[in-house]
Amino acid sequence: MKQLKLVIAIAASLLLATAAGCASTEKTASTGEYIDDSVITTKVKTAIFNEPTLKSAEIGVETYKGVVQLSGFVGSQANIAKASELSRDVQGVKTVNNDMRLK
After folding, report:
1. What is the reported pLDDT for 26?
2. What confidence tens digit (pLDDT) does each residue in 34-50 have?
3. DSSP the chain
4. What is the rounded distance in angstroms from the CA atom of residue 40 to the CA atom of residue 7?
5. Closest CA relative to residue 79, chosen from 103, 46, 43, 62
6. How far is CA 44 from the centre of its chain?
7. Which residues are within 8 A (CB) of 44 and not within 5 positions of it... i.e. 6 or more apart?
8. What global pTM score does this model have?
9. What is the spatial distance between Cα 59 and Cα 20, in angstroms, rounded to a whole number?
10. Does domain 25-102 have CATH number 3.30.1340.30?
11. For residue 42, what are the CA distances in angstroms to 75, 84, 94?
12. Which residues, in sequence order, are CB contacts of 77 under 8 Å at separation 6+?
């Protein structure tokens, strides 16, 4: 009986240690957050690609903990605003940092 309790205690300790290793910190994302960010990035890129007025090859998208960073060069201020608007409309996006520049 004591051995069974010891085995259960060790297994529980290993499970907790493993879960703690996957947790995020202020400067790193957990595995789940990384996957969520990848999905958000893909959805933002798709939204930009499907907008005929934007050249998606010239717009970079990165996501970290739900914060989308847009970069690149576009032809007009309206394109900058449109890319920001499309990004904000994607589910899961917390904020958009727009670092795009005019050509």
Report:
1. 55
2. 788 999 999 999 999 99
3. -HHHHHHHHHHHHHHHHHHHHT---SSS--HHHHHHHHHHHHHHHHHHHT-TTS-GGGEEEEEETTEEEEEEEES-HHHHHHHHHHHHTSTT--EEEEEEEE-
4. 41
5. 103
6. 10
7. 61, 63, 68, 86, 87, 90, 93
8. 0.69
9. 36
10. yes
11. 23, 15, 15
12. 102
- Which two tokens mark 67? 């914060």
Tokens of 64: 């970290």
The band of 16, judged by pLDDT with boundaries at 50, 70 and 90, is low
Six token digits for residue 42:
């893909």
